[in-house]
Design a protein that fits this description.
The protein is mainly β. The chain is 0% helix and 55% strand.
C-alpha cells in the first residue's frame, strides 16, 4: 500500500488546515486509517484514526478541534484541523493499518507549522 499525503503548510494560531491522504495498492476490507504527528525532539503520537466501520479515536489534545473522516470511494482519509495552536506544529504522517495481515504502512509526512 502506498500513501500520498498533502495539505500541510503554515497557518496562524486559531487558523485551520485540512490534510488529505490517498491510499493505493493492495488494500483490505478491514483496516484503520489514521494520522500521527511528530514534533522535534518528541516521539510520534497518535492524532486521530478511523476504522473501516467508521469508529473514530482522537488524542485528548485535539478533541473538539480536529475531525477525521474517510471516503472509501476515493481511498482517502481527511483530517480537518481547526483552532490550531503552536503546539500542533509537527510533521503529520498518514498511516494505513491492514487488520487482516497485520501490517502498517506510512506516508511521507507533511509539515504543519502554526506560527504568527
Amino acid at each position: 500500500v502506498q500513501l500520498q499525503a498533502s495539505g500541510g503548510g503554515l497557518v496562524q494560531p486559531g487558523g485551520s488546515l485540512r490534510l488529505s491522504c490517498t491510499a493505493s495498492g493492495k488494500m483490505v476490507n478491514r483496516n484503520i486509517m489514521g494520522w500521527y504527528r511528530q514534533a522535534p525532539g518528541t516521539q510520534r503520537e497518535l492524532v486521530a484514526r478511523i476504522t473501516s466501520v467508521m469508529t473514530t479515536t482522537y488524542a485528548d489534545s485535539v478533541k473538539g478541534r480536529f475531525t477525521i473522516s474517510r471516503d472509501d470511494t476515493r481511498n482517502t482519509v481527511y483530517l480537518e484541523m481547526n483552532s490550531l495552536n503552536t503546539e500542533d506544529t509537527a510533521i503529520y504522517y498518514c498511516c494505513y493499518s491492514d487488520l487482516e495481515f497485520f501490517e502498517d504502512y506510512w506516508g511521507q509526512g507533511t509539515q504543519v507549522t502554526v506560527s504568527s
